[in-house]
Design goal:
This protein has about 170 residues and is mainly alpha-helical. The chain has one domain. It has six helices and no strands. The longest helix is centred in the middle third of the chain and has 34 residues. The protein is elongated, with a radius of gyration of 21 Å.
Length: about 170
């Protein structure tokens, strides 16, 4: 069981999970991204558990705080950039399929799940290059932020060293 492991080992596992999360959420596969979200939540929960068990000013507590902040700040950045990317896609994309469905809905037609799915797939197919390039350009800074923060602290955790300022944004 994970909680029986020493705290310094749990810290290393949490950092490893976060690196896996960054890798999986950077792929174009929605299936792998969903697994990445699960590993990210697991890393976050583990970091909170470490923080609760560690002595207040210990190296483990510092790493737990740093990892918790990394995940939450990264999540905030991702939320902002995804809203921005969505705006760019909706303003610049070909929305013919969505416009046709919206017109039918305005006239009282309630679309089925299959109609909604077909419309979404049509929109994605019509705008595939725009969607992919926009998401890569907009999400890359957030992914890079999480990666750099994790790579900055993980080697110190491997050596059981303290972090100088675990509450830093950068």
């Amino acid at each position: 069981m994970m909680t029986n492991l020493p705290l310094h080992t749990q810290v290393k596992i949490a950092y490893g999970l976060n690196l896996i999360t960054i890798g999986l959420t950077s792929t174009p596969s929605l299936w792998l991204q969903n697994i990445g979200v699960v590993t990210g939540v697991t890393a976050l929960v583990l970091a909170y558990m470490i923080d609760a068990k560690a002595e207040k000013d210990s190296a483990e507590a510092g790493h737990a705080i740093y990892l918790i902040r990394t995940i939450w700040i990264w999540s905030l950045f991702l939320l902002v950039v995804l809203i921005g990317a969505e705006t760019v896609i909706l303003l610049n994309g070909n929305s013919t399929a969505m416009d046709a469905l919206a017109e039918r809905m305005i006239n009282g037609h309630l679309p089925s799940y299959n109609e909604l799915r077909a419309t979404a797939l049509s929109f994605f197919e019509d705008n595939r290059d725009l969607v992919i390039s926009t998401l890569i350009l907009w999400c890359a800074p957030a992914q890079l932020y999480a990666l750099l923060r994790t790579l900055r602290a993980f080697p110190r955790a491997l050596k059981n060293y303290r972090l100088k300022n675990p509450r830093t944004w950068f």
